[in-house]
Amino acid sequence: GIVHGQVFYATGDDTPDGDNDAFIAPKGRSYYWSEIMGYGTFDNATSNGSPGDGITNIFAANIGVKVKPVDKWTLKADLWYAALAEENMAGDDELGTEIDFVATYAVMDNLNLDLVAAYLFAGDATGTEDPVEIGARLSLSF
Question: How does pLDDT run along the chain (142 residues), one tens digit per residue?
């Protein structure tokens, strides 16, 4: 297997003084990171309070593992922690801890089935509900 990890930080605007101190990414940018907080595989919604793929006002850290137990299966598990770099208006900053699992089956050359499950232990900046994502994706590459 392969163990991987990453850490990123992007400043936020800490004072309403008219100067924007937050990191601003160029137009057209997009960085998908976790399944729930960072759009992930399905790219249709993020958790409350998360900047999603527009990396600004965030600190995030990840550790994960990817293994290929047999020829056609690849398994990946990730653990993410994320917090806002600057507190939101309510004084909250923790987005939460997320666990992601992805199992990929190679149906045939260039045709994959991804089975995705993710759970977010919501922090105070996300809300009281713990978001869950479960889904499947059939992808064809050419």
Answer: 999 999 999 888 776 666 677 777 777 778 889 999 999 998 788 999 898 888 888 999 999 999 999 999 999 999 999 999 888 888 899 999 999 999 999 999 999 999 999 999 999 999 999 999 999 999 999 9
Determine the Cα–Cα distance for residues 20 and 14; give it in Å rounded to an integer.
Answer: 9
What pTM was computed for the model? 0.88
> Helix, strand, or coil here: 54?
coil
Q: Going along 1-142, which residue ranges are E strands?
A: 2-10, 58-70, 73-83, 94-108, 111-122, 132-140
| Distance in angstroms (rounded) separating the CA atoms of residues 63 and 78 | 6
In order of 27, 57, 71, 85, the CA distances from 6 in angstroms are 23, 17, 27, 17
